[in-house]
Design goal:
The chain has 144 residues and is α+β, with helices and mostly antiparallel strands. 35% of the residues lie in helices and 26% in strands. It has a single domain, classed as Transcriptional regulator MraZ domain (Chemotaxis protein chec, 3-Layer(aba) Sandwich), CATH 3.40.1550. Strands 1-7-8-4-3-5 form a 6-stranded antiparallel sheet. A two-stranded antiparallel sheet has the order 2-6.
Length: 144
């Protein structure tokens, strides 16, 4: 399970350090996917295979083929270098709106990579219980 959050920089060659804790779980190579949420999703190859199977199993109408292309566009398989860095394509950087500083966040079954400013804006708008709201009110569907 992926947990934790780390701030790192994208260097001038579009390389990004992936924390060792995440690399261990992701394996020797893994998939980076441009999420429609405005970030990058990082999956193990096995988890990605299940997603790719779902995408390819859609019906084969012209509209479905367009959706399949959109879902697959920009996806890359990466293998970290000896320093634990992966190279992001300009397309991935553009689609996720990444600048120099990024948040690398463990989200149980995947890792997410967010532009740090976007992450901070998003997190500042989430309820956090400081207004007196209890954790049970914020997340009633979770049994603690």
């Amino acid at each position: 399970m992926f947990q934790g959050d780390y701030v790192h920089n994208i260097d001038s060659k579009n390389r990004l350090f992936i924390p060792a804790k995440f690399r261990e779980e992701l394996g020797e190579s893994f998939i980076i996917y441009p999420s429609p949420d405005g970030c990058l999703f990082v999956f193990t190859e096995a988890h990605w295979q299940g997603i790719a199977d779902q995408i390819s199993a859609q019906s084969k109408t012209a509209a479905d083929r367009i959706r399949q292309r959109n879902a697959m566009y920009g996806v890359i398989s990466v293998k970290p270098d000896k320093q634990g860095r992966v190279t992001l394509t300009p397309e991935l950087i553009r689609r996720a709106g990444l600048n120099k500083e990024v948040m690398i966040f463990g989200m149980t079954s995947r890792v997410e990579i967010w532009d740090l400013d976007r992450w901070n804006r998003m997190m500042s708008q989430l309820p956090d219980g400081t207004d007196g709201t209890s954790i049970e009110e914020l997340y009633p569907e979770i049994n603690y």
